[in-house]
Amino acid sequence: MADVKHTGRPAAALVGVLTILIVFYILFLPQDTREELFGEGNITDADEETTQLKEEQLLLTKIGSLSYLEEEKIDHYIPGAYLEEKRESKVLAEFDTFTISRGLLGGDTKKKIFIISDLHKISKAVLSFQAPIREGMLKITINQEVIFEDEITTSLPRPLVLPKEYLKRNNELIFEVPGGFLEQGEFRLDDVKVIGTSIEEEKMTAAHRFTILYTEIENFQNAYLEFRIACNQREVGPLEIELNNIIISTTTPACNNVNRIDIFEEDLNTKRNEIKFNLEEGTARLEAAKIRINLKEPKGFTDFFTIDETQWAAIEDEDQLIILDMEFIDDSKRKRTEVSINGIRDIIDQREPHFTRDITNYVKAGNNYIQVLPLTDITIVELEVRTEDKS
After folding, report:
1. Fewer CB within 10 Å: N-end or C-end of the chain?
2. 3-state class of 69 per DSSP?
3. 36 domain residue, yes or no
4. Number of domains, the chain
5. Residue 174 sits in a domain of what CATH number?
6. Residues 159-169: tens digit of each pLDDT
7. For 122-157, what is each residue's pLDDT tens digit?
8. What range does the domain containing 381 cover?
9. First and final CA of the chain: distance in angstroms?
10. Per-residue confidence at 22, pLDDT binned at 50, 70, 90?
C-alpha cells in the first residue's frame, strides 16, 4: 500500500505541470492562430453580422384596439314628456255616528282606528264631520298629538287638517269632551270621515334609457344636458333630475327657456344609462331634451424609432431598405387607417390581416416617428419597423 502511494504522487504532479505549460502556451499564441485553433471569432462574427444586415428591428410593439370616431360630438336625444301634478282625493276611513259627553261623574272618550296602506302617496289628509249636537269643548287627538281643542259653533264645521308628520300606517283618533269637575258637555258626531289627497307620482316622473359607447367614454372631453320646459313660472315647483341614481340637479327650471346642466365623465356608464325627471309641484312639458357629449380627437397610436449612422449610410448606398409590417386581427372586416411617418401620410384600406410597405423614402437619419390613426375600428396585433438587405 505504501508503494502505491509514493508512485501516484509524482504522476499527479507531472500532469499538473504539463497542464500549466499548455495553458501558458495557448495564451502566448498569436490571436488569429488561437481563434483558428478553437473556431472563435471570424466565422461566428460573420454569421451575426450577416443576420444584422439582413434584418434588424428598429421598432416592435403590440398596439391592440384603436377606435374610430367620425363625429366631434354625439347627441343622445330624450323623448318629450308631460309632467303633471295630478291629485286625487279618497276616503281613507269612515265611522258610524257616535256620542260623547261629560257630566258630574266624568266623561267618556271614543277611539277610532284606521290604516293608511299607501302612506307614501298621501300628500294631505283632513278629518271632516257634522255636529248636530254640540255643547261644551271638543278635543281631538291623532296618535297622541292634539289637532283640535275648542268649541264647535256650527253643525258643519270646517275639516281639520291632519298634519302629514302625525300620520302613520296604523292611526288612532281619540274624541273627548274635556273639562273640570263641574263642567259638562255633549257632542253627537255624524258622517265622520278621514279624507286623503294622493299624488299620482308616475304622472310627475319621466324616465329614459340610452346607451353610451366605450369610444365616447374613452374620448370624453365634456358633456351637458340641455332641455326646454314649457310651464308657468309662478306655479311650477323644483325639477329633480337623476342620472344613473345620482341627483345632478334639484332646482326650479327656467320656464319657456333652454336649461343646461353640466355632466361629468363619472356620471356616465359605458353601455346602459338612465335619466329621470321628477317634478315636485305644478305642471310642465319637457321638450327638446338631449345629452351632448363633446369628444376629443382620437389619440391613435404614436411611437418612435432611431436610424443610426451606420444604418443611414447603408440606406444612402442603397444597400438597405426600411420596411413597415403591420399585423391586424384576422376578422375579415374592412381595415382603414392612416399611417403617418415623419408627416408623410399613407392610407391603408384592405381586408387582409397583413400589411407590408417599403418606407425607405419616408425616413431620415436619427429620430423618426410613426403615427397610426384609425379610419375604422381596428385591432393591430403587432407593428414592426425593420431594416432589410436590398437584393
Report:
1. N
2. coil
3. no
4. 3
5. 2.60.120.230
6. 999 999 999 99
7. 888 999 999 999 999 999 999 999 999 999 999 999
8. 55-68+298-389
9. 75
10. low
CB 298 within 8 A of CB 68: yes
Which residues touch 316 (CB under 8 Å, ≥6 apart)?
Answer: none
Helices (H), the chain: 2-27, 31-38, 42-54, 214-218, 309-316
377 and 362: one domain?
yes
CA distances to 43, 169, 198 from 118, rounded to whole Å, are 95, 8, 9
Residue 223 and residue 257 in one domain: yes
For 171, the grid coordinates are 292611526
Identify whether residues 100 and 242 lie together within a single domain.
no
Output the nine-digit C-alpha cell for 193. 270621515
Rg (CA), the chain: 46
Nearest to 69 by CA among 371, 296, 347, 345: 296
Tell me if 252 sits within 8 A of 308, measured CB to CB: no
342 with 368, same domain: the answer is yes
| Stretch (H or E) spanning 281 | none
Is residue 13 included in any domain, yes or no?
no
Q: Looking at residue 343, what is its pLDDT?
A: 92
